[in-house]
Amino acid sequence: MGVDSLGYVGLNISKLDEWCSLLEGVFGMEPRPREGSNAVDYRLDNYHHRITLYPGSTDSVAVVGWEVGSEGRLDQLATLLQAKGTEVTAGSIELCEERKVRKLYSFTCPMIGSHNEIYYGPLVTNTAFAPRRGISGYKTGSQGLGHIVFWVKDLPASVKFYEEVMGFDISDYIAWDIHDAVFLHCNPRHHTLALMKEGPGPAGGLMHIMVEANSLDDVGYGYDIVRDRGIPVMLDPGKHSNDHMQSFYLQTPSGFWIEYGFGARDIGPDWEIKTYDQPMLWGHRMVAD
Q1: Distance (Å, whole) CA 71 – CA 194
Q2: CB count, 10 Å around CB of 121?
């Protein structure tokens, strides 16, 4: 029992035009404006959408949506959350329609403080994904949108919650300098969630979201576009020590980062948990101001 993937992310953003330019021009995502709303859904595979932008005066995570494969398992997870002391609310028909899912429950993560939803039955669109630039697409499917990383105040308690309640398993650890990070998986993707001890970032803060391309060339061309447009690069291209992702990190108009990567290895039946003393095999150096 537990979640199967990261299904969608909603973001409150204060700079809509800059965000749309980023998601379309760099990542090639397909916009799906909503009728009667200023929110914009973004598509990157056969799902109706994976990312939603909610324009406003502040920048924050609006919602993190976790997909569950069946209604029965969804109800069981909602019951477990309640039994562990987390208030759970059944999603209205209107909210399910907005999210394009058959059923959902909402709750506030007791460890991170973010608004979360668990759901099943996402809407799949029968027309092909139409990228805004020439890309080969994204590694999603049963592995979901990608991964998400948060700073947390109590790292052991947060890991325990995501293991015992949300159904994640530990992939590995990285401990370097003043940083301490735990990587967790809920499907073959090396990690769908990573938790970092607060320090460089505030507890409850979003560090980054990762999307994984089907081609290294997609990432390389994206890097050139980012540099040509003067978008802040936070970590130069490099390769991670644990998942072997080749990627770079950029800063979004909201301040947190997006990792654009390719080629991460998957978790298999013979996976062994390890602790790494640095996050990179090569590259991924901080870019000087």
Answers
A1: 26
A2: 17
Beta-bridged to residue 65, according to DSSP, are: 8, 117
Torsion of Cα atoms, 42 then 37 then 87 then 114, to 10° = 50
Q: Where are the domains of the chain?
A: 5-120, 141-283
Give the whole-number percent of the chain exceeding pLDDT 90. 93
Kindly state the helix (H) or strand (E) to which residue 31 belongs, with its residue range. strand 30-33
Domains 5-120 and 141-283 share a fold: yes
CATH number (3.30.70.260, 2.40.50.100, 3.10.180.10, 3.10.129.10) of 5-120 reads 3.10.180.10
Long-range contacts, 165-169 (Cβ 8 Å, 24+) = 165/2, 165/77, 165/80, 165/81, 165/84, 165/86, 166/2, 166/3, 166/66, 166/77, 167/1, 167/2, 167/3, 167/77, 168/2, 168/3, 168/192, 168/193
**Surface-to-core class of residue 286, CB atoms within 10 Å of its CB (0-12 exposed, 13-18 middle, 19+ buried):** exposed
* Sequence-separated (6 or more) residues with CB below 8 Å from residue 110: 85, 86, 161
What's this model's pTM, rounded to 2 decimal places?
0.97
Tens of pLDDT along 63-112?
999 999 999 999 999 999 999 999 999 999 999 999 999 999 999 999 99
Tell me the pLDDT band of 288, cut-offs 50, 70 and 90: low
Residue 53 CA to residue 61 CA, distance in Å, equals 10
Q: Is residue 20 within 8 Å of residue 11, measured between CB atoms? A: no
Q: Distance (Å, rounded) from C-alpha 49 to C-alpha 28?
A: 13
Asked: is 141-283 a CATH 3.20.20.70 domain? The reply is no
Amino acid at 74: L
